[in-house]
């Protein structure tokens, strides 16, 4: 048998396992703890606990034959202590599970941020390369602007030529009042 043999390999058949009487699955206990913690943090829990305490006190003060927990209410205090002894670890377990989820979420956010940053930097480099490449070539807008400038220049030259032809034509017709 090789040294790296593991009983949990998928190609290895497993023997019959005894079914456990209690299953201490960490996730199942954690889910239960979160449910208890959520319930303990609600207003309905506080309302029901207050009603329970008021009924407990009224039954122990008001009725002589119902007096199972006399005035210092030691049994009620014992019930609250037991509840607190179980509630505190359950709340801490729920908080630890939430911390684990937050840590996983934070790591995922960091990974996505790093990917987004790398993608952004890549696109910025590509855009800079395109700008450099386009800067060396004549663009359509640049060519259109230059052609418009040349067209304006040609129109001005044609206008000046027409003015000179008109002036020459006037000088041949007769004396002009204008000095040359």
From TrEMBL:
It holds the Pfam family DUF1003. InterPro entries: DUF1003 (IPR010406). The chain crosses the membrane at residues 45-68, 74-94. Residues 161-180 are annotated as: Disordered. Keywords: Membrane, Transmembrane, Transmembrane helix. The keyword Chaperone does not apply. The keyword Transmembrane applies. Coiled coil: none annotated. It comes from the Bacteria. PANTHER family: INTEGRAL MEMBRANE PROTEIN-RELATED, MEMBRANE PROTEIN. This is DUF1003 domain-containing protein.
